[in-house]
Amino acid sequence: MSLISAEIAGYLEKSSWIRKMFEAGIALKKQYGEQAVCDFSLGNPDLPAPPAVGDALRTMAENAGKPFAFGYMPNGGFQWAREALAGQVSAEQGMPVDAGDLLLSCGAAGALNAFFRAVLEPGDEVLAVAPYFVEYGFYVSNHQGVFKTAMSRPETFELDIEAVEARITPKTRALIINSPNNPTGVVYSREELEALAALLERKSRENGRPVYLIADEPYRFLSFDGVKVPSVLPLYPFSVVVNSFSKNLSLAGERLGYICLSPLMENRAELMAALTLTNRILGFVNPPVIGQHVMAHALGSQVDVGVYAQRRDAMAEVLSGAGYQFSMPKGAFYFFPKAPGGDDVEFCRVLMEEKVLAVPGSGFGGPGYFRLTFCVDEEVIRRSAGGFARAMAHFA
Ligand code: PLP
């Protein structure tokens, strides 16, 4: 007698690579001590939250005894929080958005689930550009959708518009892109996004209903060397932006994010009403109270991105020094180098023998590569140089 569904049993059996590496890391650290292991497996932001976060919490503590300080609120978040956020999003996206175009959610993850619940018919397809954030597939099947992928261009990971077109069918309801990208660090150019928008306009007409473009942007704040992250909102009426405060304020555990509808979308009030309902009935009920106070107070501040930039340079030095092939990440906090020998799972196993933890690219739909996170101290990056060199020598 099975206690759980066959689908979830299957997921447990396959358990994600990130989790596997996380667990292997715990075992290695127990055996050899924390200091001996260089763990680049998890994207858990380690930089301290900016001081405005602590200030907001102290003010909240002073008001904690007031009635309804932690009460329910409208399912899409406090009106004052949405108004404050609208100013910031308008500046970031280079287009005026209104508080009514924004719904606050439990992280970007909650926003994606609320969106899929609102728009998918059973059997509708959602396409993601690979390599991709592995949770997308779970979120789509949570809502009876079918998850599909279209590969990006080899090595550069730029958008391959023909590959996307080849994967669109009459059942395609949405395309999800993530720029700056986890795991590749790529940032899509305005030209690539314009070409994508033109394709989706055409496909929406052919399909007789919108093919949504979801831009998942938790790393929008983190691009390097002056690279700009163009907005999709002015390019395509059926576009939505999903974002969160997990990375820019290092608030990943507090679960605050949002979804913003393109101001060009006609009749978008209907979609916003649906999202407000799905945010509620998925059991999120409303976004976290504390997160909203913190967010409103901390708008305009962010973690010290200079630290991430320095770590990126350190990691690039270590990898180049050991002879690895990679594209320099333009944004986010990941490297996605080629796995020596070509078999990413085997390579990560060898690397683990050197007590260096990475995640095989296969876990992101990018076999032949591996992912490294630079959410670790620069000292750990420097210390990993010997391990990377020996792992490379193993495949020479
Ligand atoms: N999208 C991408 C690309 C991510 O990397 C993550 C988290 O790592 C998420 C979404 C989920 O973020 P949140 O913590 O806001 O739910």
UniProtKB/TrEMBL annotation:
Cofactor: pyridoxal 5'-phosphate
GO MF terms held by the record: pyridoxal phosphate binding; transaminase activity
Segments passing through the bilayer: none
Gene3D superfamilies: Aspartate Aminotransferase, domain 1, Type I PLP-dependent aspartate aminotransferase-like (Major domain)
EC class name: transferase
Keyword terms, alphabetized: Aminotransferase, Transferase
Listed Pfam families: Aminotran_1_2 (PF00155)
Aminotransferase class I/classII large domain span: 38-383
EC code(s) of this entry: 2.6.1.-
SUPFAM superfamilies from the UniProt entry: PLP-dependent transferases
Superkingdom of source: Bacteria
Signal peptide range in chain numbering: none
Family, per entry: Belongs to the class-I pyridoxal-phosphate-dependent aminotransferase family.
Record protein name field: Aminotransferase
Organism: Oleidesulfovibrio alaskensis (strain ATCC BAA-1058 / DSM 17464 / G20)
Phylogenetic placement of the source organism: Bacteria, Pseudomonadati, Thermodesulfobacteriota, Desulfovibrionia, Desulfovibrionales
